[in-house]
Amino acid sequence: DAKTTQPPSMDCAEGRAANLPCNHSTISGNEYVYWYRQIHSQGPQYIIHGLKNNETNEMASLIITEDRKSSTLILPHATLRDTAVYYCIVRPSNTGNQFYFGTGTSLTVIP
Amino acid sequence: GAVVSQHPSWVICKSGTSVKIECRSLDFQATTMFWYRQFPKQSLMLMATSNEGSKATYEQGVEKDKFLINHASLTLSTLTVTSAHPEDSSFYICSALTGGYGYTFGSGTRLTVV
Asked: A97: which of A3, A14, B9, B51 is 20 to 30 A away, CA to CA?
């Protein structure tokens, strides 16, 4: 599986957009980009995933660069409840392969 | 959506005893489940892949005789920490594949060995 690089921590003001970057320069053509988050002492929660096109759902937007070597997760209006560790993972979809977590980005939303 | 239920949410046990953690898929069948361990301020570390009806596959460095995994049905996988010691104290999390969304995770079990 391709490795990912994320900044260890970020702050964001409440109500503003939180933009979390992820570098995956060795991603393969069949690998998807998944984003999960983990609120303290809970199991990870699925946010969004994509292959090449930008994706949006009720939680967030995912912007993938044209060369697919990096992506950005956007939380459009961050709230205090969005404070969590955000993990970017790349792997083939629906293959049953394991998820390996990197170190993630610890996002703190500030009132 | 798919729900994975993990039980107990926390447990305290004496050193040398064994502890069983259950992971259930509530509204879907999970032929494959995964077990993770997470130490404070660290990321999730994959321990093993649990396959229904067959032996689990362990990641390198994980003692299979210490962390017994049983996946006897399509909705239940269990992790038993045998002869637990304080260094086994950790947050244990299970997950199951749920189609296009990747994986759904349980809420985790906080194990404290005293």
From this structure: B9
Q: Which two tokens mark B110?
A: 């906080």
pLDDT in tens, B94-108: 999 876 667 899 999
Q: What is the pLDDT of residues B24-40, one digit of tens each?
A: 999 888 888 999 999 99
Do residue B43 and residue A96 have CB atoms under 8 angstroms apart? no
Measured at the CA of B88, the angle between CA B86 and CA B89, to 5 degrees, comes to: 70
CA atoms within 13 A on the CB side of B106: 32
Asked whether the predicted pLDDT for residue A1 surpasses 70, the reply is no
Q: Is A87 on the interface with B (CB under 8 A)?
A: yes
A49 contacts A90 by C-beta, under 8 angstroms: no
User: Is the distance from CB of A74 to CB of A19 less than 8 angstroms?
Assistant: yes
